[in-house]
Amino acid sequence: MTARELPRLVFTTPRTLPAASALPGRVAVLDVAFAAEGLGTPFEEMTGRFLEQLGSRLAAWVDHHDHEFHARYAGDDRFVLATKAQHGACPEMVTPEVVARAGPIDTLMVHGDLDGLYSAAKWLLDGVEPYPGADDDARCIDTRIGTPGPTANLIDHALRARFRDEALKHRIVRWLIGGLADREHRAVITEAAAEFEKSAAETARLGESYRIRGRVAYCDARTTRGRFDKTDLLLVGQTKAPVSIVQDSGMVTVAAAFDSGWDFVVLLGLGGGMPTRVSMPEHRLEDTIERVNAAAEPTPRR
Fold first, then answer.
1. Could you identify which of 37, 54, 129, 132 might form a hypothetical disulfide with 271, taking C-beta atoms 3.0 to 4.6 angstroms apart as the criterion?
2. Is the separation of the CB atoms in 224 and 261 below 8 Å?
């Protein structure tokens, strides 16, 4: 596939959708969750408005994050929607049939994490994995269950080191669709991944500061002395208690193991998101800890 054939690639998050008018032509959306009321961005004001503005130009919306409004679109075959329990990652939902049904597109809008970038690469390859085992790698990274291969580890570390670097994300997608052959792309990605290693020490330091509050391991990361990795810090907390909470930059992030059975979306009345990892304004910290400690014991997913 040549660069000339590529649709415009746009990276986004559920709470920062671009104006539909800024996206040319027919649009496919991958790995972008519906906005949720409890997360501070009501569906109607964010996702709903975007869909209304986009109208018939929407070619496909493929996503695997739980949301109560999925049922609204059950009769529209442009929407391929699932829960996190059904599909641990989005690329496995991007099949040749889904891509073919959508038809030609002009814009590909994706979540800017590894899951989203792998979904984009697979779409651009007409539903074929960019390398054998890529779907499994994306699932391992997104669920933090299992052991991803070296390519996924490299890309994951690079993205976590430079999560706002859009040029890097474009480079990663091109490296993937090019069969991992471009040496310059690999060199830049490797350089970014090396920066991730520098944050490991600060993550470890913060990990020593967890306080146990019932079923919750709580870390006040506002005391950080530099860059740290929130995902790894949350995983440290989960070795100390069933639920980990990190407070940082005006937000609290709550997490538990993917197969733990916890559903924070329901427990905290958020409306949508990933059941085992959510973020909220920090004023909800104490209420969240109280609800977690008062909740019934969850049934682990098998």
1. 37
2. no
φ/ψ of residue 274, rounded to 5? -90, 125
Element (H, E) at 110: strand 107-111
> What is the phi/psi pair of residue 30, to 5°?
-130, 135
Measure CA 208 to chain center. 26
pLDDT 10s digits, 247-268: 999 999 999 998 899 999 999 9
Take residue 35 and report the two structure tokens written for it: 């906005």
pTM for the model stands at 0.76
Cα atoms in the Cβ-side hemisphere of radius 13 Å centred on 60: 25
Q: Tell me which long-range contacts 186-194 makes (C-beta under 8 A, separation of at least 24).
A: 189/154, 189/155, 189/158, 190/154, 190/158, 192/157, 192/158, 192/159, 192/161, 192/162, 192/165, 192/168, 193/154, 193/155, 193/157, 193/158, 193/161, 194/161
Looking from the CA of 117 toward its CB, the CA atoms found within 13 Å total 25
Let me know: does 94 contact 111? Beta carbons within 8 Å.
no
DSSP H stretches of helix in the chain? 47-54, 96-102, 114-124, 134-143, 150-161, 166-177, 183-207, 230-238, 264-267, 285-294
